[in-house]
Amino acid sequence: MNVFVDGRGFIRCGENRWPCAVGRSGLGQKSKEGDGLTPLGTHAFGRVFWRQDRIADLQTVLTTLASRQSMGWCDDPSQDDYNTLITLPHLGRFEELWRQDHIYDLVVEILYNTNPIISGQGSAIFMHIARPDLSPTEGCIALKQDDLLELLRMINENSRLIVGQK
Known about the structure:
This protein is mainly β. It has a single domain (3-163), classed as L,D-transpeptidase catalytic domain-like (Beta Barrel), CATH 2.40.440. Helix content is 6%, strand content 33%. The protein is built from one helix and 14 strands, in the order βββββββββββββαβ. It has one helix at 145-154, and strands at residues 3-5, 10-13, 16-19, 27-28, 38-39, 41-50, 64-66, 71-74, 85-87, 94-96, 106-110, 126-129, 141-143, 160-163. The strands form three sheets. Strands 1, 2, 3, 6, 7, 11, 12, 13 and 14 form a nine-stranded mixed β-sheet that branches. The chain has a three-stranded antiparallel β-sheet with strand order 9-8-10, with no helix packed on it. Strands 4-5 form a two-stranded parallel sheet. The chain starts with a strand and ends with a strand.
């Protein structure tokens, strides 16, 4: 079952429709790291990272990996491991996957700029838990925790994320 994201702040899967947050610059063709765009197109889902100490009942057929304090994601185009999972500490810029706020308690890797990885074209595009006010992201797609958990129960390894298309 595919997942559709529109530019009006909604995500749809089957008969279900939930509010979501997208990048602060909206949907578009990403041109550089930090542009705030959620990338248009069709993308596969990768691994699911989750905080076992905060999420009790994760049900998905996607590959899961329990988050650890040493996990990060390199978003520094000058690094050889740009747009990949890294172990902290790490040189250069990165995002910590183990955070005090709750937005990365549940993170779904979106396979954008992964094959091949093009330095500077955008990194760390995830689906994750939204802030309470559904404020815009830096390019990710964010949903309320219960909605994201429900979505993960519905999709499989053949599902695709379709951004900006009906």
